[in-house]
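Minutes, project huddle
Topic: does the predicted pose make sense with zinc ion bound?
PN asked that the exact inputs be recorded in the minutes so nobody has to dig through chat later. Recorded below.
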Amino acid sequence: MHDLVIRNGRIVDGTGKPAFTGDVAIDGGVIAAVGPKAGAGRREIDASGLLVTPGWVDIHTHYDGQVTWDPYLTPSSWHGVTTVVMGNCGVGFAPVQPGKEEFLIGLMEGVEDIPGSALAAGIPWQWESFAQYLDALARMPRAIDVAAQIPHGAVRAYVMGERGAHNEAATPDDIARMAAVVREALCAGAIGVTSSRTLLHRAKNGEHVPGTFASEAEMTALGRTLGDAGHGVMELATDMVGPDTNLEWMAKVSIETGRPITILATAATPEPLDFERVMGLVRSWKRQGARLVPQVAARPAYVLMGLETTIHPFSTHRAYRSLVGRLKLEERVARMRDPEVRAQILNDEVGLKDPLGRHYLTLFDSIFALGDPPNYEPAREMSVGARARREGRTPQEVAYDLLLQRDGRELLYVPLGDYQSFDLERNRRLLIDPDTRLGVSDGGAHCGMVCDASAPTFMLTHWVRDRERGPRLGLEQVIRFQTSETAELYGFTDRGVLAPGMKADVNVIDFAGLHLYAPEIVYDFPAGARRLIQKVDGYKYTVVSGEVIYENGAPTGALPGKLVRGGRIAHPAP
Ligand SMILES: [Zn+2]
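Predicted holo structure (tokens), as shared on screen:
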């Protein structure tokens, strides 16, 4: 008698192999059999007509704070994610000198747009070292598995104090001490070490993330700790757009340590990423034994603008701020519908001096209504600018009226550099490149502007099922992208494939009924802080370690999730 049998589903096992109909049997949290006909189970799930897949492994999230107060890590777990990797892009909450917690909060708030008020109210600071942080996470009950990377920003501030926090150059002694802290964290179970090398990432006070300008010697010393520990990944948020992008030190570290280095390959700027050149470099270093893995996204980097988000085309107008800016949404919408108020706001100007900010707020040929269901691949003629020209109105008028739709909840979608061709062809080419990996969902982050924790669902709805403006991707291919491939990169040898001996993390999905809703603003974070969430229908069951955690989208109360420690992942029985 098995613990659980998922019967008669259409099994897509995560390896990329063609789907087949059969049963998945689970015992003791581990898959016992995958095949045509399993024996009876104490519990049976009828998966006739449903997809049965491994749970998704999302390698790029920022749940480092939320992980201490939300056992479900929503929205990711709603979307079938059963393992998240946190601590990306050089920011996180350990190690921390007692009394310096505020600094790390400001860093996370600035870089990842996670409300500092929520972090301050939600995080129970029970640690100083990274090992103590991991121990604290291990004690907390949770529904899905989490793994943590040690962030360079925190390490630098911890070891070098103010000098490190303000990006002063590290001495050889500083570097040796930072490497020792990282090594210790890896030995305690950190799954990697991360850093921010992009000028876009700034703390709330405007300063760049500690480590942004770190020398090659400092970066190399951090990377070498992976070799000492014998496990782990180095992750870098880096400006891949400049002509002088240099992957050389990364390649050398990877060759020396035998460990992978993953770099973000998205263009969060007006310029598109020179993908061909970066992939050329990656392939030439690969021939010399380096493993450099560009992380690519399900859709372009973008900003959502609405009346409740961080910015929108009128949020910096003095008239908007003084007339309606402080009102609750309902009253604000009512006032904004008043023709006099409308005229005053429309006659005012963007009050922002920052040229990049101005650029985005007035880029009407690249601003679209997102709609519900959301359209992430709108055609050029659907832009606010194109509509305005067609309708003989100003783009500001069109944008203003769009913001008032859906009772003021409509969102404007502003895809950045990668959307210059007005379709997702660039993303498709990045996704299917054998040397890239799917990532960059930034789950838990950018709470006032972006919601990509839903990316694994979007991969199925848009890329496999619904796309009409270009080629689609294969079902088995997409499921491989977000299971075995992401698991392999981070050394999760025990998951990502439905096979005997593997951890029983499983999604049972009504593929035809899979429905992604528009993102929405809610105020459910600690201290009532704001965040964007995105709901979904179609995940019938999500199973973690053999226990059903969601049934028809409702949590069952089971909390089988664990902290996954790097270097201690049990290989499955043969
Ligand atoms: Zn990130």
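Observations noted during the meeting:
- The CA atoms of residues 73 and 324 lie 34 Å apart.
- Residues 172-188 form the longest helix (17 residues).
No decisions taken; revisit at the next huddle.
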